[in-house]
Each structure stands twice: as structure tokens, then as C-alpha cells.
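Risk register update: the risk of archive-format incompatibility is retired. Evidence:
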Amino acid sequence: MGNIRVENCVVQAVRRWEFPKPLGGGIVIVSYPFNFTAGGAGD
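Archived output:
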């Protein structure tokens, strides 16, 4: 992205996310695309 402040903010936010544990144990893989776009005035 080229903006270390924004990148660090996103990383810190993601680290705080918690998901329910799967029934019966095991692991869960969460995948979600992040799409960042530049906003204009008033966006």
C-alpha cells in the first residue's frame, strides 16, 4: 500500500479480531480480501 501508518493500523486491528472456536476442535482458516481505494473529498 505504501503507507506504513495505514498498514500498521490494519495489522493491529486484525490482531484483535477473535473468532469462535470450531465445534469439536481443529483449526479454522479465515480469508477475506481487503480492497483499499483512494477516497475524494466528502467520501
